[in-house]
Amino acid sequence: MNSALQFNVSPYAPFMQETKVTLGNGIELHVEMGGNPEHPTILLIMGLGAQMLFWPDFFCKSLIDQGFRVIRFDNRDIGLSSKVRHKGQRLNTMKLMSRFMFGLANQGAPYTLYDMADDVAMLIDQLGLEKTYILGASMGGMISQIVAAKYPEKVEKIGLLFTSNNQPLLPPPFPKQLFSLLGKPEAHDEDSIVNHSLKVFHIIGSPGYVNQVEAIQTIRKLYRRSFYPAGVLQQFLAILCTGSLLPLNKNIIQPTLVVHGSKDRLLPPSHGKAVAKAISGAKFELIQGMGHDIPAHFIPQLSGLFAHHFRSSH
């Protein structure tokens, strides 16, 4: 572990410590870690527009209790990590999306998922981690696939949660789910964001498992911590300008577990199945009733699956 880093107790989870890590490419990432430093490390990589707190405290604690050190962080352009100010031309998102559906990459984004994967590789180096386990959700799962393929020496095993390899002709997200994620709130004050985000949680979340009171508390906490909608759009453009990861999947040699919810309507389960099929020897688990979120109800099952995968000898 890099001894120059200054740690404080996390204001969100008392069993975690937080710090800032300068990567050396102009990006600084806000990082939290918890658990015994002697234990194997799981690095959690979050999805589109999602601060690291979208990894629930209960999920992190559950992995720590099963014998792991857990690290979560804000990707670039979100939360308390560096924001990328970009003065380029405005891109036509619809045009990019139609090319993307056919597995074609696009030009013009301020950065791509390859740059975000480089952030992760530099973070692993800066934290002085030996081979680590990585667990990526949604866009974070796409980033994880790139890290594993490009930097095999840094990654021991991979866990992927409700993600995709964006190969050509996968069934698209259900329009309601996609547009809820990309939709604009009526205003940028806290209550408008709560109302807007609550709708999103209900539309993409696990049907019947979204806890209204907890969801509102989470949204307020995230809004007060950081609100930067420009970063969400830039991360979306990064996905669209990365294109299909199918050619990369052939290079992934690490043991891989792909987990998907049966009720995911943002990235239907066939996306996760496509990833598992494309990565040699990957295992696939479908969680009945789960959507594109991590509700408390599914955490014992999810953390158990990933802990078992990371612990198993092959």
From TrEMBL:
GO terms for molecular function: triacylglycerol lipase activity. Residues 40-294 form the AB hydrolase-1 domain. It comes from the Bacteria. Keywords: Hydrolase. GO terms for biological process: glycerolipid catabolic process. InterPro entries: AB_hydrolase (IPR050471), AB_hydrolase_1 (IPR000073), AB_hydrolase_fold (IPR029058). Its EC number is 3.7.1.8. It is an enzyme of class 3 (hydrolase). PANTHER family: AB HYDROLASE-1 DOMAIN-CONTAINING PROTEIN, HYDROLASE, ALPHA/BETA FOLD FAMILY PROTEIN. This is 2-hydroxy-6-oxo-6-phenylhexa-2,4-dienoate hydrolase. It comes from Acinetobacter venetianus.
